[in-house]
Amino acid sequence: MRRFQQYIDGAFDDGSGRFDSIDPATGAVWAEMPEAREVDVDRAVTAAERALWSGPWAAMTATQRGKLLYRLADLVAANAQELAELETRDTGKIIRETSAQIAYVADYYRYYAGLADKIEGAYLPIDKADMDVWLRREPVGVVAAIVPWNSQLFLSAVKLGPALAAGCTLVVKASEDGPAPLLAFARLVQEAGFPAGVVNILTGFGPACGSALTCHPKIAHIAFTGGPGTAAAVVRNSAENLASTSLELGGKSPFVVFADADLESAANAQVSGIFAATGQSCVAGSRLIVEASIKERFLAILKSRAEAIRIGSPLDMATEVGPLCTSRQRALIETVVEASLKAGARLVTGGATPGTSGFYYPPTVIDCDGVSAASVETELFGPVLSVLSFETEEEAVRLANDTRFGLASGVFTTNLARAHRMVKRIRAGVVWVNTYRAVSPIAPFGGFGQSGHGREGGLAAALDYTRTKTVWVRTSDDPIPDPFVMR
Ligand code: TXE
To answer: Are residues 242 and 298 in the same domain?
Structure first.
C-alpha cells in the first residue's frame, strides 16, 4: 500500500492522524494519507508567516521568485506522467485527461513565473508641491488555498502561481478525497528550491483541518474552490481573521443550441461539455437548452454519441468515461435522476448503474421539458445532461439565466448578431460561443451569483494577491514649520 506524507516548513512528516484512500475504479483501499489536525495546521501557518517576513523568500527579488516558478513549471512538465497516474488512481479521473491537464498545468506556472516581475506599483501626479506619492504592491500575506478533489493540481496551480508571483506564502489544503497528486507535488516544490515555509501542503477533513485553517488568525486571504455550502462556512470563518476571500464554486451551466447552429459540431462540444471528467467539472454544460424545431434531431445525435462512449478503467488510455470519485457522489446522482424520472422526465439514454465494482455511472441524458425536475437545478457533478427546449430567443435567455449559479455557458449559433446579444444577456462569468471548455492561464475565470467571486487566471489574479501601500515622500529641504506658530 502506498503511504503519503504532508509537507510543512520544508520537511515531510506523517501528520497527526492517518486515513485510507480508496481507488474509485475498484472501491478498494490503495493508499494511506496523512491527516492534518489543528496542531499541524498551526505549524504550517506559523511556518508560512515566518517565511513571509524573514529569511530568503522575504529578501528575494521578484525576478528570483519568477525563476523558482519556472523551475517548478519544468519539474511539473517532467513529472507530468507520474502525477497524472497518481491523480487517476486516487480520483478515478481518466488518464488521457489527467495527463493532458497536468502537462498544461506547467504552462500556468510558466505564465505566473513570467508575471512575477511585471507586477508594478504606480506613481501618482499628486496635487501638492514638493511631494512624491507612489504605490507599492506588496504580498497580501499568508494564503490558505483550499481545493476539492477534482483536478487538484490544476485548481491549486491557479492559486499557487499568482500568489507566489506576488510574493505570498501559502498553506495548501488538498481534498481528503484523492489528495495523492498534490501531496506528491510537494516533492517538486522542495526540489525547485522554494525556501522552507513558503509552500506547505497538507490534507485533512473539513471541521478539523479546513475550519482550523480558515479561522487561523494569521491567514490574510482564503482562496477556495468547492461547493457553495462549504463556501458559506468558509466565509463565516473568515470573520474570525477578517481575511479576504476568493470563491470558485459550482455551476449548472446552460448550453444553448439554436436551430441555425452546426449541429454536429455542437453535439461534439456538448458531449465533451458534460461527459468529460465523468461530468465532475465545475463548468459542466449540464443544462442543454435547445431550439424546439431541432430538439429531436439533436437528441438523436447525442444519444448515438453517448452510447458509443468507451467506459472502462481510468488507467487505460482508450477509456473515455471512468468512475466517479466517491460512492457518495454516485448516490446523489442516482437519487436525483430517479426523482426526476418519477416527476415525469424522459430517459433518452443511460440512467442505470452498472453492477460492476467501482463508482461507475453511465453517460445519461434526460429530457426534462415541461417537467419540474430536480436534475435541472441540482449540481450533480456527474455525467448527467438535463434537456429543456425553447421557441424564441427571449425564452432561451430566460431558461439560461434560470439558475442560482453563473459560472459558465455556451451558445451555438451561426447568427453573429444573435451571438453578441446572447453574450450580453447571459449572466455567467464565462460565455463560450461555438466552443466549450476552453481555458488558458491568460484568461480570467470565475463565476457570478452562487458560483462565487474573484477571478483565477490572467494578470488580475496576481494583483488579487497583493495589497497596496501608499508612500508619501516630502522632497523639500525646507524645514517643516512649527504648526502652532501663526504666520
Ligand atoms: O467539496 P467541498 P466536495 C461542488 C460540486 C460537488 C460539491 C462537493 O457540486 O458535488 O461541490 O464537492 C474543504 N472549512 N464543487 O465535497 O465539500 C474540503 O475538505 C474549510 C464545485 O469536494 O466543498 C475540501 O478540501 N474547508 C467545484 C474542500 O473544502 C472545508 C469543484 C472542498 O470541499 C470545510 C468541486 C470547512 N468547514 C466541487 N469543509 C468547482 N467549482 O470546481 C470542507 N472543507
So the answer is: no
Cell of 220: 490574510
Judge whether 168 counts as a catalytic residue: no
Q: What pLDDT shows up at residue 309?
A: 96
Say how far apart CA 289 and CA 298 lie, in whole Å. 11
Alpha-carbon distances of 457 from 111, 170, 314, 427, 454, rounded to whole Å: 9, 17, 28, 20, 10
Pocket test for ligand 1, best of 93, 230, 281, 324 (most atoms within 8 A of CB): 230
Residues with CB under 6 A from ligand 1: 146-150, 173, 175-176, 206, 210-211, 214, 225-227, 230, 233-234, 248-250, 282, 379, 381
Domain range for 277:
254-433
What are the backbone dihedrals phi and psi of residue 33, each rounded to the nearest 5 degrees, phi first? -115, 155
pTM: 0.96
CA–CA separation, 178 and 90 (whole Å): 5
Q: Domain for residue 9, yes or no?
A: yes
pLDDT at res. 186: 98
Residues 297 and 338 in one domain: yes
For position 354, what pLDDT does the model report?
A: 76
CATH at 400: 3.40.309.10
Same-domain check for residues 199 and 318: no
Q: What CATH number does residue 239 fall under?
A: 3.40.605.10
The model's pLDDT over 394-437, given as tens digits with 9 standing for 90+, comes to 999 999 999 999 999 999 999 999 999 999 999 999 999 999 99
With respect to residue 115, please indicate whether it lies within any of the assigned structural domains.
yes
Between 96-105, 290-299, 345-354, the lowest mean confidence (pLDDT) is in 345-354
- Whether 486 is covered by a domain: the verdict is no
Distance, CA 321 to ligand 1 centroid (Å)? Answer: 22
- Count of the separate structural domains present in the chain: 2
Give the closest residue to 459 by CA, choosing from 448, 438, 439, 444. 444
Q: Does the residue 480 lie in any domain?
A: no
Q: Among 168, 209, 215, 282, which one carries the catalytic annotation?
A: 282
In ligand 1, the atom with minimum distance to the C-alpha of 281 is 42
User: Would you state the pLDDT for residue 485?
Assistant: 85
Ligand 1 centroid to 205 CA: how many Å? 11
Report the distance separating Cα 196 and Cα 67, nearest Å. 17
Q: In this predicted model, what pLDDT tens digit does every residue of 72-90 receive, in sequence order?
A: 999 999 999 999 999 999 9
Catalytic residue list contains 282: yes
Q: Given pLDDT bands bounded at 50, 70 and 90, which one contains residue 176?
A: very high
| Of the candidates 57, 55, 2, the residue with the CA atom closest to the CA atom of residue 28 | 2
